[in-house]
């Protein structure tokens, strides 16, 4: 048994979904469509734990804590050639803030609540308890790896793991200015008790929900990001005055599920948007 498979089985025993990585930190493609990087190492995954391959074979969607799968003959060649072990942080209920150099580490120490840290080749991984949407380049040399992402296993780390703070969730609300092709402006209304309801007439809310549905339905890519941002926009405008009803939320969830999101994906996106805005 290889050292990487042994490490993977140890992690799986405590419920951490794992997968082998090739040299260069790339996942193995375990079906003909993905073999030899034929898919560009970017499989089109509809939702957590599913991809368009005959089985979840590639990247974070292949991560599993099922020892029967990890030790199966179909995975044996990958373990023989593996150069590292990766895990799916979101699947383990974790979020990794990947700090790529000393400057990023210094920023984190000055900005984020302390938590468990793991040394990397160039910087550190800060690991928090709680899952969220992943996003790269939330600021220079800082990535967030959680749901729909994988991180290299570099050991258990040091320090006490703490709960995922709002400061980390807020990093993923918008992309950094340099990475945006179209600016997205989200206006957060005044806290509860400060000012009048902005709706004035029911048509204002109805128009907002209809526009949100249309925005989700029209998305042709980045569905997860589109759904989250749309939920965020709806909550920022209508989330503090008590006018949103279960029927309105159901309409948004229905539109998202029609684009391939699962009910769990919708619930997570809604909860994360609420947490980001504090509503």
Describe this structure in words.
- The chain has 279 residues and is α+β, with helices and mostly antiparallel strands.
- It has helices at 3-13, 67-70, 76-81, 102-111, 166-171, 202-218, 223-238, 246-258, 263-277, and strands at residues 18-21, 84-87, 94-99, 116-119, 124-129, 135-139, 142-145, 151-152, 162-163.
- Strands 3, 4, 5, 6, 7 and 9 form a six-stranded mixed β-sheet that branches. A three-stranded antiparallel β-sheet has the order 1-2-8, covered by helices on one side.
- Helix 6 (202-218) runs antiparallel to helix 7 (223-238).
- The longest helix is centred in the C-terminal third of the chain and has 17 residues, at 202-218.
- It starts with a helix and ends with a helix.
- The model is unreliable at 41-51 and 175-195 (pLDDT under 50).
Q: What is the residue-mean pLDDT, rounded to a whole number?
A: 80
Could you name the ranges where pLDDT drops below 50 across 5 or more consecutive residues?
41-51, 175-195
Number of helices: 9
Alpha-carbon distance between the two ends: 50 Å
How does the helix and strand content classify structurally? alpha+beta
Approximate shape: globular
Order of helices and strands: HEHHEEHEEEEEEHHHHH
Tell me the helix content.
25-40%
Q: Please state roughly what percent of the residues sit in beta strands, choosing from under 5%, 5-15%, 15-25%, 25-35%, 35-45% or over 45%.
A: 5-15%
- Count all strands and give the number: 9
Draw up the topology in text:
Elements: H1 3-13, E1 18-21, H2 67-70, H3 76-81, E2 84-87, E3 94-99, H4 102-111, E4 116-119, E5 124-129, E6 135-139, E7 142-145, E8 151-152, E9 162-163, H5 166-171, H6 202-218, H7 223-238, H8 246-258, H9 263-277
Parallel strand pairs: 5-9
Antiparallel strand pairs: 1-2, 2-8, 3-5, 3-7, 4-5, 6-7
């Amino acid at each position: 048994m290889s050292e990487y498979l042994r490490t993977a089985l140890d992690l799986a025993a405590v419920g951490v979904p794992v997968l082998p990585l090739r040299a260069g930190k790339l996942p193995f493609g375990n079906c003909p469509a993905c073999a030899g990087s034929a898919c560009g190492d970017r499989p089109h995954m509809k939702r957590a734990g599913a991809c368009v391959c005959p089985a979840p074979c590639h990247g974070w969607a292949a991560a599993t804590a099922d020892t029967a799968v990890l030790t199966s003959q179909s995975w044996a060649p990958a373990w023989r050639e593996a150069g590292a072990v990766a895990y799916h942080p979101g699947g383990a209920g974790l979020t990794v803030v990947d700090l790529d150099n000393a400057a990023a580490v210094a920023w984190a120490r000055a900005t984020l609540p302390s938590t468990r840290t793991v040394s990397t080749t160039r910087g550190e991984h800060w690991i928090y308890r709680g899952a969220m949407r992943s996003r790269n380049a939330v600021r220079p040399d800082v990535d967030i790896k959680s749901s729909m992402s994988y991180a290299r296993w570099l050991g258990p780390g040091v320090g006490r793991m703490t709960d995922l703070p709002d400061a980390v969730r807020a990093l993923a609300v918008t992309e950094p200015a340099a990475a945006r092709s179209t600016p997205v402006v989200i206006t957060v209304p005044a806290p509860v008790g400060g000012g009048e309801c902005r709706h004035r007439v029911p048509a204002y809310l109805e128009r907002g929900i209809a526009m949100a549905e249309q925005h989700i339905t029209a998305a042709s890519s980045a569905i997860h990001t589109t759904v989250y941002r749309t939920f965020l926009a709806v909550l920022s405008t209508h989330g503090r005055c008590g006018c949103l009803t279960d029927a309105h939320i159901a309409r948004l969830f229905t539109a998202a599920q029609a684009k391939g999101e699962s009910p769990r994906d919708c619930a997570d996106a809604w909860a994360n948007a609420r947490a980001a805005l504090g509503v």
